[in-house]
Amino acid sequence: MEGICTSCLYSSITPSIEYKSRRKLLNTIQKSRSLSTRICAVSSVSTVQTPSEKTALLVKDISRTSALEQLDIERGVCIPFRKYSPESVRNKVLESRGQIFSLVGRGIEIVWSLGLYWTTLVYDYLVGRDEEVVPFRARQLRKLLCDLGPSFIKAGQVLANRPDIIREDYMNELCILQDDVPAFPNQVAFNIIEEELGQPLEAVFSKISSETIAAASLGQVYRATLRASGEEVAIKVLRPQIEPIIYRDLFLFRTLASFLNGISLQKLGCNAELIVDEFGEKLLEELDYTLEARNIEDFLENFKDDPTVKIPRVYRQLSGSRVLVMEWIDGIRCTDPQAIRDEGIDIDGFLTVGVSAALRQLLEFGLFHGDPHPGNIFAMRDGRIAYVDFGNVAVLSQQNKQILIDAVVHAVNEDYAEMANDFTRLGFLASGTDVAPIVPALEAIWQNSLEKGLADFNFRSVTGKFNQLVYNYPIRIPERFSLVIRSLLTQEGICLTLEPDFKFLEVAYPYVAKRLLTDPNPALRERLIQVLFKDGLFQWKRLENLISLAKENVTKLSKNPAFQGNNRGTRKHLKNEQKLDLTDTIKDGARLFIIDEGIRRQLLLALTEDSKLHIQEVVDVYRLLEDQIDVPSMALEVAQDLPSVARDILLSWSSSVLSDRSDR
């Protein structure tokens, strides 16, 4: 296997595996790193002293590895059936003389338009009015991007979440950039639907809306009724001839980016072509509705046992690459709090469901909705939260999820140097970057937020400070994390619309606490231990806080009307959600206490530190848990696990004996 990287191995052995199966297989391969011995990573440059030497070495290293390979490395995943690659884009736009002429004409248009705008910025700087005209120039940029078409609209929406590339005042203006484009004619859309179906509209639909429900730069949506079943469906139709336009613009983007690599390496620690590749990859995914159908099916699979989340069903037999038919969601817009209350839905309970669903996507599934604006999230009349539009989703590998949890643990423990290292491991900083100057800035941001207290903490204020840090240091925000940031900010905004006094972290932190206490994942068990021990001392108060917050999460969730359903699955889930399921946690804790000498010593010291027995702390913890656990049942569970524990003790003892003998 030598000389074969995980990405290449994965690509070569999975030529026909569906999306969900491919993701599961990837996790298996990632856990078996020994299959691959070649390390596909940019070499460390920690010994380079001068910026010019560092840039030169980065250019040399990056030239050995394509931008897409770098993305796969930092993501911890790879995509074996890539719709986007620089080579495929180039081949498509240069395959005929007519396309070449079109490319040249479009290139002149782009260079002329952007050149004129750049000239005005230079003039403003020379006459000393660059700061005072920023609002006007930001509006100019937004209008310019709209005029240049769908590729630039999408690029502007990406830039609205990239403080590493543009300054905050321009970002704020681009945040209002919408896919506000005229709908294309109904007859053109209906012809596309018939081509994909292979039969007349009337044969499949008994009714279809005469006007579009929504129109965007890449497609538009109609409402219809299936003739066979009478079910209401949404039909999403791709804009005609959009793909050649997107390919042409992506080729020009990448060509222009090649001239900016030197600047990008100095400012962001990566070349500009990598940023274009990230953008192009996501954009071309949105042009293929078969990928969106797979996304919907993945979300359905992830939330199949969660009675609080509604994901629309996709009609595969009626869908194709240009048409997507899915279940119609008849819900209440999340910007109308009164309508939600009128349906008898508890706002706090609904918000808890929404935040928990978002955090499950991010930290549990690693597949999350990248565009949860108010038009894509609805409140169902039974209290569930519903998502639509799955064209823009992002995947976080198991490795990335674990690093994110590490970052949370390091933040709790106020270990800012390790937080900075987490940024490098996630791809925010180039490998080998000296994190020392960034550590004090991270500490200042986090301490300032903590001083305000949990009640006044909000993502927007923290993100504003983080944006300044990103703009001042060579930090790049990877595309998937720009989507994470946008997703969290958007959902916090929706929450504040429904409840002006809502505190996102007051819901998010209890979810994280519950996850740390109840998730059987060994990696999370390790993080729980890291949270509970600081400088070798057991944090009794922190354990009490975790239990209290986790119980709070359970209480808020159980208020949601979605839990009051009459079907068996809902009743079972309600029973599970009314109490903290700490069975596995306690069993694992007992196992660790018996087997792990280091943990055993630390816990015994925790009970006797400061020359006194900490009986009261144990009693306080028990009082918090006494209504959550059935002690006899729990004791029976632990007793049943004793044979397995005894086996592990014997294996550990025999391993130590063999190790001692080999040392002699």
TrEMBL record:
Chain segments annotated as transmembrane: none
InterPro entries, per database record: ABC1_dom, Kinase-like_dom_sf, Prot_kinase_dom, UbiB_kinase
Name by which UniProt lists this protein: Protein ACTIVITY OF BC1 COMPLEX KINASE 1, chloroplastic
Assigned keywords, A-Z: Kinase, Transferase
A GO MF term: kinase activity
Cited SUPFAM superfamilies: Protein kinase-like (PK-like) (SSF56112)
Coiled-coil regions listed: none
Span of domain Protein kinase: 207-538
Pfam families: ABC1
Gene: ABC1K1
Assigned protein family: Belongs to the protein kinase superfamily. ADCK protein kinase family.
